[in-house]
Amino acid sequence: MDLAANLASIRGRIAAACVRANRDPASVTLLAVTKTQPAEVVSEAARLGLTLFGESKVQEAKAKIPLCSGRLSWHMVGHLQSNKARDAVSLFSMIQSVDSLLLAEEINSRAEQASKTMPILLEVNIVGEASKFGYRPEQLLLDLEKLNGLPRLEIHGLMTVPPWSPLPERARPVFQRIRELKAQCEQILGAPLPHLSMGMSGDFEVAIEEGATLVRIGTALFGERSKATR
Question: How does DSSP classify residue 102?
């Protein structure tokens, strides 16, 4: 694995997608997803200038984050169980995968205990895939004002994982619908939501063209995970 070359390639592709979309490349942040990657690889990525990392499982993050530089920021990007909310609040600077009012209430309670304000993204399952977590859009709109009323949470935007396809263009309608849903949420809340977290290794360029501000990239950066660790 040539991490420096992979990172340079991804940065170039991000910049090119921004040119096509008439966007400032500075408006897109690369989040390095380090699932199954050891702390040494995180340190190498940090030496190359990456500062934002994502983990999918609380237990793995709990073991890994203390071994890494304290200057790095970490986001929870995988499904979060309510019984792991306390650890998530202490480990992460943002939880991107809030998918129910019950989970949000638990995070709020744990953040209150920790005297901390927790930035969150609301995860949306736009097409209702049974294999994926996330709010259905109609339920999100129903819950939005209650979510916004939780005093220890700050809603920063939406996150989604589209249905897998080898063809990146197939994700475009999903990304467009998420962008439109964010606009609906902003209208209800009367305030801007700065982030759309969408796009991964196979489709991040399309996501950027459709407004992504955070792209979550693992495989294109670190290479394929071994089958034993998937």
Answer: H
Question: What does the alpha-carbon distance between residue 72 and residue 51 come to, in Å, rounded to a whole number?
Answer: 5
Question: Alpha-carbon torsion 208, 220, 40, 91, what sign?
Answer: positive
Domains in the chain: boundaries: 3-222
Confidence at residue 226, expressed as pLDDT on a 0 to 100 scale = 54
- Using CA atoms of 183, 186, 191, 194 in order, give the dihedral in degrees to the nearest 10: -60
Residue 170, Cβ neighbours under 10 Å: how many? 14
* DSSP per-residue letters across 201-227: TTTHHHHHHTT-SEEEESHHHH-PPPG
Query: How confident is the model over 68-77, as pLDDT tens digits?
Result: 999 999 999 9
CATH superfamily of 3-222: Alanine racemase (3.20.20.10)
Closest to 54 measured CA to CA, from 84, 76, 87 = 76
% helix, strand, coil for the chain, step of 5: 50, 20, 35
According to the model, what pLDDT value does residue 230 have? 37
Do residues 163 and 170 make contact, with C-beta atoms less than 8 angstroms apart? yes
The tokens for 219 are 């495989």
What percentage of the chain has pLDDT greater than the value 90? 93
Nearest one of 9, 64, 5, 8 to 33, comparing CA atoms? 64
Rg over CA atoms, the chain: 17
Paired tokens of 62: 């709990």
